[in-house]
Specification:
The chain contains four helices and three strands. By secondary structure, the chain is of the alpha/beta class.
Length: 107
Amino acid sequence: MQNLTLIRGLPGSGKSTVAAGMSESSGAIHLESDMYFINDEGEYIFDPEKLEDAHHWCLEQTRKYLRMGIPVIVSNTFTRCWEMQKYVDLEPYCVSDPRLKPEGLFS
């Protein structure tokens, strides 16, 4: 299994469902920015003013797990290629064979 899988799509398109199923069958960690808004009681409380913090949290959690060698599945809307670029830039933690580096994937 590859170390990082990115799932993109519009809200309500089933990204979370697909990612959860993949995570369950593979043992990979499933992350998404929306998880930032889940409180200790398991309630989802969205705050648009904290959206940037949520995306930063998701990226840093992804980086943390990849550094530990744990595969990660990230499901976010990623409607624009530049939104995925920060995750693609984590590639040194993801790709064991440098020949697989996605040169200029989003440039």
